[in-house]
Amino acid sequence: MNAFDKLLRQLNLTPAGVLGLAVLAVLPFIPPFNQEYLIRWLIAAALIAAGAIAFDFTAGFINIVNFGFYAILGLGGYTSAILSVNVGLTPWIGVFIGAAAAGVLGFLTGLLTLRLRGIFAAVMAWFVGLALMGLATKMVWLTRGPLGLRTPRLFDTASNIPYYYLILLLMLVTYIICSRVVASKVGIAFKAIGQNMDAAKTSGINPTYYRIINFTLSCTLAGLLGGFYAHYYGILTPDIMHTSKTVEVLAVAYIGGRGSLWGGAAIAFPFILAMELVRSGLSNLPGLNLILYGLLLILVMIYYPGGFAKFFDAYIRHPKNRALNYFLNGASVRT
Amino acid sequence: MNILETKQLTKRFGGLVAVNEVSMHVEEGEIVGLIGPNGAGKTTLLNAIAGLNPPTSGRVFLAGKETTGLPPDRMCRLGLSRTFQIPNPFPKMTVLETVNCATIFGNRKGAVSDVAAHSRKMLAFVEFPMPADTVSEQLNTVQLKRLDLARALASKPRLLFLDEVASGLSEGELTDIMAVIRKIRESGVTILMVEHIMQLIMNLCDRLVCIQFGTKIAEGPTQEVARDPKVTEAYLGAEADQCTAE
Amino acid sequence: MRRRFWTVIVAGILSIGLAAAPAAAVDKTLKVGVLGPFTGPSAKNGAEFKASVEMAMEKIDYKIGDYKIELVWIDSQSDPAKATSAYAEAVERMGIECAMQNWHSSVAVAAMDVAAQYKVPHWFGFGATEVVNEKWKADPEKYSYWGGKGWPIPAKMAVGYVECLDNAIEKGTWKPENKKVGIYGEDTDWGRSLGGALKQMFADKGWEIVSEDYFPITQTDFYPLLSKYKTAGVSVLAGTSTAAPTMTAFVKQAGEVGLKSVIIADGLGWMGDWYKMAGPASNGVLDMIPQLTTPEAKKWAEDIQAKYGFNPSPSAGGLCYDGTNMFIKILKRTLEKYGELNKENIHKIFVEEIHTGQLTFSKADGALIMNEYRYNADSVPDPVVGKDAYYFPVIQYTDGKGAIVYPDDWKEKDFEAKK
Amino acid sequence: MSDRFIRWCRSAAGVTILLSILLAVIATIDRGPYILVNTAITGGMLALVAVGLALLLGVMNVASFVHGEYFMIGTLVAYYVFTPLQNFLNTNPSPLLAMVAPLIAILAAAVAGAAAGALTEIMVFAPMRRRSRENWVMNSFLLTVGLAVLLINGHLLIFGADFKGIVRYWAGAPVTIMDVFISRDRLFAFLLSIIVILAFWVFMKTTRTGRAIRAVSQDETGSLMVGINLSAILIFTMALGCSLAAVAGASLLFLYPSYPTVGLEALYMAWFIVILVGLGNIIGALTGGFMVALLKVLTVEYIGSGWDFVVPTALIILVLIFKPSGIFGSEVRGVLDQ
Questions:
Q1: How far is C41 from chain A (nearest CA, A)?
Q2: Which of A182, B101, C27, C294 has its CA 20 to 30 A from that of C43?
Q3: pTM for the model
């Protein structure tokens, strides 16, 4: 195995993944993608992709749908925004404090939902999100509520390209962190408590410990993304914490394939671009894109709960051709 | 030496008393059978001891140390493993990963140097018939029971609970599983088994504990308990009901 | 080992990208963006915008000189983030040279940056609140592209209510039991901004502020809140909501619980069909909206009713119509002065002629609602407020019809307290 | 008797109910009887929606995120039935028709809600149940999320985002009870909720179908063995639950005009209640409706409007920390995953 393959293995990437990232990296210079509005769409897609990875880290492994995901993401954004507006802290530090705040809340949510299982925990996380959104709306002296908090932007430029590379990097970092954790022993514990709580407990796994780790990490990453959101759009309203935003990420993560991490990220780009096209192309039919969203989610849940990732694993992943196989899977090492 | 001892162990669910002041013990090296008609509270008793459903009152001692109410993962690391009546390991994991779970988390850190090797050894020990990379949702019940057994053994228990490990097996499979259970005992593991199949009980168990309606009605050497009129009555009464239900 | 698969993305993106290739620009066409909440909770206002802009454009047959006007609808969806995306798309893909209108302040704050980024002159954005002005004043040069607001900050307008009530007390037409006020409003930038302004003004005139409540824009159950006011015995309830169901529900339920206070429901009349939902409970309610006084204005409303099937409100549709016509005047002036219609020239007119008060739009030019839309260096981005310029009279409703009760020289009837 | 009563008083359910009553009494003495009236009227309607949700949880094991959309369907159907009737009445006054027009609208909504529920079961849940029951609770929950997005935006696409509301069902001066004015619509909505709840109660207790539904909620396999047509019962339950939500929506049309996301608040409230009392606990849902209503009314009264969302949520989270299975305890199998 050469150095390149070793590096890929370290990063849990495949040659196909690297190619995909490379394409995304040069995309802003290839027509028609060199237009700012398409780069905005790409940024939106990358944000959802990164969100889907962090979301799947919880939903796909410990089997708890964090329905308050965007509320916690919003908390990260608000923390960073408030620090930069009121204290004058640079957003470059603020986003990390925001991520830490989100992580702390993730920790607490994890604690709160500990004794609850599955759907109960999801609903509890949802309530935490709703309460958080309510607070963001009502604590006007701090958040300006629905008036919207104007936030300083990260880069002093009108161009979207620096933001695009930043969010791409964030997406990659999110993926690498999540996939490395999942591939470690901790990941085995996640899967075990997600698939069978009793068997996991009697195998010596402390579910409390691992669930909290999972929630804390996932929420920290969400908070980081929230910081990006706050300092990219330049305005923050409590709407960012709305359940419908979580549903958006949820749909992408599940259509992409739960428990795969990469599935949601891979599907996010074509999916979001297609949805934006439908929306802007058929603007006389409002809501059509979201109808497609809902329909797709329903069809996937009924007929293919594994999503795109499972389809890929079943039909595309293992081609006969060796070069192609290497391309899709990287240098394989069977133990 | 008593590897397990319970004192007045009681478990209530609301108004229902599922286990009522059961005091019993298991000596090191024994195979003890826990018997009783359906719904007598056998599995509840196991859960109360193992920490899955902590007891309402009473005390539990594992190898002389009190462990009442400890969570199951602690119990596992203290040397108590169990299998499940309806074996349900991790459906999306492969056989090897399933056993790895218990190998990694059921043993003290560094106690097993080569995780995969240990897990494979356990699979071989229970004579697991399928390749180790089979996803466990593809296994049948018999194979799942073996897998669950391998998983339970992977944490190197001193005491093993077997919850109806033989139910639904054919005659030939029964002989096989008996051989495996004997092998487990020979490797130094004490066994407490909940069982219905008389053939297995009479052949394997050194002693029996019989409970009915959550209360212990008999405890002693296998032959003695089997002849106990209270036990016969409990079974006959219950069996009559069972026949009509099935 | 985890793996990734990206080729599908690439294929997908490429095919989408081809479909989204930019439309080629045609000579002598001016593409004008119209920003509005065409979907979402304020879609009703969006519909009024659309009708009004179309009506104004049809009158000139979509032509200014030898330029053909092409409208590009930019849907803000009442969401700043989505609005900025759609705006940027309209600039780059559709190639708009200028834009106009807008409803929410939060959208305005976000869209101002996009307009400045692309140097697209934007005319007559509503979105009245202070936050827009604060941002504008932080960098007047940059935001001069946000040419002139279609609605001044609430503080400049709302004083009329207090004056109207004090006037009635002075004259003896109204004898309130106490001078207690309850402030209410939708929990949005608009609601809080107007609520804050009203609170300040009432307090300045010696009224006692009993409570201040802001509720979600979608709330329609006000029985608990109204019961509270009833117990507190307030003489005046003052506040606003921009959402039709919220405002109408508030008024209707106030009648049901038997509240005797004078209700100021700022914005009730914005919804063209409000009376269908508020019913007779709205009798005696005060509002501050421009009226369709002139025959032209009444004809305009009839035309909209005939063509689009709804009754337009003067403050959404009417102002939008005036704003559009003023923009047409600006475009004509630009063509006349510079011979070419493009971003730079339109912006120059903004700075040189609008912000200096040279170019105005008055009843003589065909304005329906206000006497004159006029801006100057002190007022920008707001229009000048005054009886001869931008001014809302206070009106009181009876059976769904509003009559002006203040200022005195405009009044159609006297203020009447609820019995 | 007294012994049992004391034990009940010391249980979580007893403590909460007694505490609620105490709070209500104190607030009424402090502020006036309108607190009680508002609580009763809001509570009745909340209970209707929550009972439907609890029914779906208990019998179908479906944690529905889409329940608010059946509320929305109720408002929509009632609007499109009632408005033409009223227009007709404006030109042809008829006291009899004026009396029954609201009832026709609500009945139509009930039927439409039932039909929508039955269709949902047949087209969405049944195929999914046939394909796989693995991880059912979570998968069906996500399915309802998709369905909610679909219905909300379907409404937007077909009927637009306008607010489709009416002034009132019944004309006439408000009724005065304990010095509180109550409009006839609200009074009727309250009475209707009580009648529907009672009818539902009687239905579940006495009829064969009602007993079959309860049997299914206790033990699905067992009920199959005693000859219950499971798929018919599931369709019927879904129809019943959705119909309850639609009736609530229709009878509240005067308060909640129909627009795409009108069901969200009903959904939130129903979930608050169901989680608070314990998933799938139908009797609990009835009581919980009034408790959450009280909580809302008191929050508006003492803290301020707009907080009636934050405060109950925070309180419920607190309650659940100490009693995760809800204050009445959960009666459902499966909802807790295993």
A1: 12
A2: C294
A3: 0.84
Q: Which domains does chain A have, with CATH numbers?
A: 3-329 (1.10.3470)
CA distance A66 to A58: 7
Domain C29-129+295-345 and domain C155-291+392-406 have a common topology: yes
- Cβ-nearest to A35 among C13, C22, C86: C22
Strands C394-398, B207-212: parallel, antiparallel or unpaired by DSSP? unpaired
A139, A153, A174, A235: best to mutate for the C interface, most C CBs within 10 A: A235
- Which of A115, A127, A197, A284 to probe by mutation at the D interface, max D CB count within 10 Å? A127
pLDDT tens for residues C18-53? Answer: 454 444 444 689 999 999 988 766 777 888 999 999
Q: Across all residues in chain B, what is the average pLDDT?
A: 85
For A298, the closest of D124, D161, D268 (CB atoms) is: D124
Q: How far is CA D84 from CA A241, B116, D162, in A?
A: 40, 74, 17
Chains that touch A (3 or more CB pairs under 8 A): B, C, D
Cross-chain Cβ contact C17/A283 below 8 Å: no
Give the tens place of pLDDT for each residue, A196-229: 888 888 888 988 899 999 999 999 999 999 999 9
Q: How many angstroms separate the CA of residue D179 from the nearest CA in chain C?
A: 10
Query: Does D333 have pLDDT greater than 60?
Result: no
* Residues of A with Cβ-Cβ distance to B73 under 8 angstroms: 201-207
A195, A205, A207 ranked by CB distance to B91: nearest: A195
Q: Average pLDDT in the D311-330 region?
A: 76
- pLDDT per residue over A169-204, tens digit each? 999 999 999 999 998 889 999 999 888 888 888 888
Q: What is chain A's percent helix, strand, coil content, to nearest 5? A: 75, 0, 25
The domain made up of D32-322 is a member of CATH 1.10.3470: yes
Give the rounded percent of residues in chain C with a pLDDT score beyond 70: 93
Q: Where are the domains of chain C?
A: 29-129+295-345, 155-291+392-406
CA-based nearest distance A287→chain D, Å:
5
Average pLDDT over residues A85-110: 93
Which chain D residue shows the shortest CA-CA distance from C217?
A: D306
Chains B and A touch (3+ CB pairs under 8 A): yes
Q: What residue of B is the nearest CA neighbor of A184?
A: B104
Q: Which CATH class is domain C29-129+295-345?
A: alpha beta
DSSP assignments along A120-171, one per residue = HHHHHHHHHHHHHHHHHHH-HHHH-GGG-EE---SSSSS-SHHHHHHHHHHH
The answer to whether C397 touches C282, Cβ cutoff 8 Å, is yes
Residue D302 sits at φ, ψ, to 5 deg, of -100, -25
Report the C-alpha gap between A178 and A198 in whole angstroms: 25
Residue C9's pLDDT is what? 45
Residues of A in contact with D154 (CB under 8 A): 287, 291
C-alpha to C-alpha distance for B169 and B175, rounded to whole angstroms: 10
CATH architecture of C155-291+392-406: 3-Layer(aba) Sandwich (3.40)
Binary contact (A20, C109; C-beta < 8 A): no
Is the ipTM higher than 0.95? The answer is no
Domain boundaries, chain D: 32-322
Q: Give the model's pLDDT for residue C267.
A: 84
Instruction: Compute the distance between CA of residue C253 and CA of residue D183 in angstroms, rounded to an integer.
Output: 8
B119, B103 Cβ separation under 8 angstroms? yes
| CA distance readout (Å), A18 to A15, A24, B233, C1, D257 | 5, 10, 72, 15, 52
pLDDT value of position A76:
96
Give the confidence band of D326 by pLDDT, cuts at 50, 70, 90. confident
Cβ of C231 under 8 Å from any chain A Cβ? no
**What is the band of B240 on the pLDDT scale with cuts at 50, 70, 90?**
very low
Contact A65 D141 (CB under 8 A): yes
Gap from A71 CA to chain D (nearest CA, Å): 14
